[in-house]
Design brief:
The complex is a heterodimer.
Chain A (H helix, E strand, L loop, with lengths): L11 H20 L3 H27 L6 H19 L3 H26 L4 H21 L1 H4 L5 E2 L11 E3 L1 H4 L3 E2 H24 L2 H11 L1 H6 L4 H27 L1 E2 L1 H4 L2 H14 L5 H30 L5 H4 L5 H15 L3 H8 L10
Antiparallel strand pairs in A: 1-4, 2-3
Helix pairs in contact in A: 1-8, 2-8, 2-11, 2-13, 2-14, 3-4, 3-11, 4-11, 8-11, 9-11, 13-14, 13-17, 14-17
Chain B lengths: L17 H17 L2 H32 L6 H16 L3 H4 L4 H31 L6 H23 L4 E2 L9 E4 L2 E4 H23 L1 H11 L1 H6 L4 H27 L1 E2 L3 H16 L4 H21 L1 H4 L2 H12 L11
Antiparallel strand pairs in B: 1-4, 2-3
The chains are: A mainly alpha, B mainly alpha.
Chain lengths: 360, 336
């Protein structure tokens, strides 16, 4: 229980689900070596960490931030710009991280000090505005960021797909640079999620929950709520930037669409809420379900859409078009906020313990 | 010691004119920087027109927040819906839109605007009943629900109209500009200014001079008391929400004609701009929203002319500056 920080899944179904997801991710490159399956597995890892860091804000402190992709983007661009301009070396990776992480933390500090101090609702709007300004900056400063095209770069020798670390005839599985990159991503994301689990179950995490439930009362108890909120904000930003860096390493590319766009922000929001706000485990479940749906539901929808078109039904083919999958997830999202605000994880846990009050 | 007799009039709240002067001060300060008088007039008219349109779109959001304490992140959806509904009238009747008579043009524009307002208002009714009614008083859930609503609305527009951008040309009599001396003033901008001013005055009059306005303001102050007096405040607030949605739909057409195109993501794009305006003005304040919209438009237009690179983030800089000065916006609504 130490590694889970005294906060086990507390539901048999949830435990099985989590073990299944994590086991599948752990063996994914060996069992499903195809490019698409690998991409899906990596995306699940990265988004699980990203969503977990967002959950620290949304689920535990109850503050809605729309600037999370900004930090994600800072991590991505940090790696991309460093590797692009310094060449494919480990020094460049280190430099990228050394520049991006402090920048993300500093920006989070700025936003936190500036807007957490004012009205709570301002925070959501202000983060939205700052994030959109950042997106504009990233696509306009093309000498630095490559503009709309983004930056492609080479990875250090060790991480390239061509580098064979363990040939196939040893174990029956080929371990190449790509596999190694996957396991770096997997390990880093697992470490970040465990770290976040530790944070939310520490006394600090309890204060965050107290602030969520009643900020005024927490303040009256003597906690400096602005300090706690800003600290949580910086922590979430650091994890998000790290996730962004991992994403850039995997894609060997960073651009506005893959790391900064508003639609990623919406994806994160959907994953947190569907998985379960304020549970941390919800991030893993939410990210897995969402990304699997994103990649495999569309095929199903295209079949349904064609069937509807062949049956001559009006409107339905358009609504079932594979590009409209977000419509259905949006509806699921609304239903989820309304009917089970603690998401899948909260729902699964509800049988065991009393729901700890809805998140306001 | 002062004696107050029962018959003395209540002390009037102090009027705060400083924010209202800001746009004027800004415009005058820009005159020497821009240098040429004719460019300044053109830019100022452009700013005012753009500001009025933004105000029409943002006013609903700030009304709904101020009166009902509902934070609607899906407000942009009403804007896009309004614009799309307008194309239902304007595109089939393109012949009348391109006719050379102002009367014929307006005869098409007016029903298009009315239909768009009716549809976005009706959509407001549905949204309030389905999405917002269950989450009154819970800001976090309001944000989540309405953001979900925005996603669904945008996707539904894509499903119904397809992903392409729909061009929406201006009526021919509103094209071009009046030339006075060496100053060119676009006709459509003049119209937008006029309409925006009318909407602003109408909202102010209704809120401050009618019984409904009195009830709304009273309901904001003390809901239980107004209910105890026998008024159905729920219906009143629902009406306010519908009016706010209809205004957004109306602003949507005006913006679509201004940009001469309609796209499902326009609601999403404008949301940020509208939020900045509402924050600058002070959440819930109509006057602040009006001034905020003008300031945002001025900074965008003057900034775009003077320092094009800076203009991209000028809105954020403006917001930061205003919030440094007044952390709750220009006119903070004091009731909460």
């Amino acid at each position: 229980m130490m590694i889970l920080s005294g906060d086990p899944p507390r539901s048999r179904v949830l435990s099985i689900l989590l073990v299944a997801i994590i086991a599948a991710l752990a063996v994914a490159p060996l069992l499903f070596p195809g490019a698409k399956a690998m991409n899906v597995a990596t995306k699940i890892c990265i988004f699980a960490a990203l969503v977990a860091s967002y959950d620290l804000l949304l689920g535990y402190t109850g503050s809605v931030s729309f600037a999370h992709t900004m930090f994600y983007g800072i991590g991505s661009y940090g790696i991309a710009i460093a590797l692009y301009s310094m060449g494919p070396t480990w020094t460049a990776v280190a430099t990228g991280l050394a520049l991006a992480l402090p920048l993300a933390a500093l920006l989070a500090l700025g936003i936190g000090l500036f807007s957490l101090r004012v009205e709570a609702i301002f925070f959501a709007m202000i983060t939205l505005a700052v994030a959109s300004a950042f997106l504009v900056l990233a696509s306009q400063l093309s000498w630095l960021t490559g503009g709309e095209d983004g930056r492609s770069f080479q990875l250090p020798e060790l991480l390239r797909p061509g580098t064979i670390l363990i040939p196939k005839d040893w174990f029956g599985f080929a371990i190449n640079g790509r596999t190694l990159t996957y396991y770096i991503v997997f390990a880093a994301c697992a470490a970040m999620i465990l770290g976040l689990l530790r944070v939310v179950n520490s006394p600090f995490g309890r204060v965050l929950q107290a602030i969520r439930e009643n900020r005024f009362r927490a303040e009256a108890l003597g906690y400096r709520t602005v300090f706690h909120l800003t600290y949580a904000n910086c922590l979430a930003a650091l994890v998000a930037a790290s996730a962004g860096a991992l994403n850039a390493l995997w894609l060997r590319y960073a651009g506005p669409d893959t790391s900064l766009s508003f639609s990623i922000m919406l994806d994160i929001l959907l994953m947190v809420v569907i998985g379960g706000m304020g549970t941390m485990y919800g991030a893993i479940v939410g990210a897995a379900i969402f990304i699997l749906a994103q990649n495999y539901l569309q095929a199903l929808m295209s079949v349904a859409s064609e069937a509807a078109a062949n049956a001559g039904l009006p409107l339905l083919p358009g609504l079932l078009h594979p590009d409209r999958w977000l419509l259905w997830l949006g509806l699921l999202f609304i239903a989820s906020v309304y009917f089970f605000p603690t998401g899948i994880v909260g729902r699964l846990r509800a049988g065991r313990i009393k729901p700890s009050g809805s998140v306001h | 010691m002062t004696d107050l007799a029962a018959t003395d009039p209540l002390p009037k709240p102090k009027r705060d004119f400083l924010p209202a002067l800001l746009p004027v001060i800004l415009a005058l300060a820009m005159l020497p920087l821009i240098g040429s008088g004719s460019s300044w007039v053109t830019l100022t008219v452009a700013s005012l027109a753009m500001g009025m349109m933004i105000f029409i779109m943002a006013s609903g959001l700030t009304l709904v927040f101020g009166l009902m304490d509902v934070l609607n992140f899906g407000h942009g959806a009403f804007i896009a819906v309004g614009a799309y509904i307008a194309t239902l009238v304007l595109l089939p009747l393109a012949g009348s839109v391109q006719a050379d008579s102002l009367l014929v043009n307006l005869a098409v524009l007016a029903p298009a605007a009315l239909l768009a307002m009716a549809v976005s208002g009706a959509l407001g009714l549905v949204v309030e009943r389905v999405l917002i009614l269950p989450v009154y008083g819970q800001h976090l859930k309001q944000i989540l629900m309405t953001t979900g609503g925005l996603i669904v609305a945008e996707q539904a527009l894509y499903a119904l109209w397809g992903p392409q951008i729909i061009p929406l040309p201006l009526p021919s009599s509103l094209r071009g500009s009046f030339i006075i001396g060496d100053v060119a003033i676009a006709k459509y901008r003049l119209l937008a200014m006029l309409v925006g001013l009318v909407v602003f005055l109408a909202i102010q009059l209704v809120l401050n001079r009618t019984k409904i306005g009195l009830l709304i303001r009273a309901g904001v102050e003390n809901r239980e008391m107004v209910e105890a007096l026998g008024y159905r405040i729920r219906q009143l607030f629902l009406g306010v929400f519908m009016v706010g949605s209809a205004l957004a739909g109306f602003g949507g057409i005006m913006w679509a004609l201004y940009r001469e195109q309609v796209h499902a993501s326009m609601g999403n794009d404008l949301t940020v701009l509208i939020f900045i305006v509402v924050i600058i003005g002070g959440l819930g304040s109509i006057g602040g929203c009006f001034i905020g919209a003008l300031l945002v438009a001025m900074v965008a237009n003057y900034g775009g002319f003077l320092v094009p690179k800076l203009a991209l983030v000028s809105n954020i800089l403006l917001m930061v500056a205003v919030l440094m000065w007044r952390p709750r916006g220009l006119y903070a609504v004091t009731s909460r």
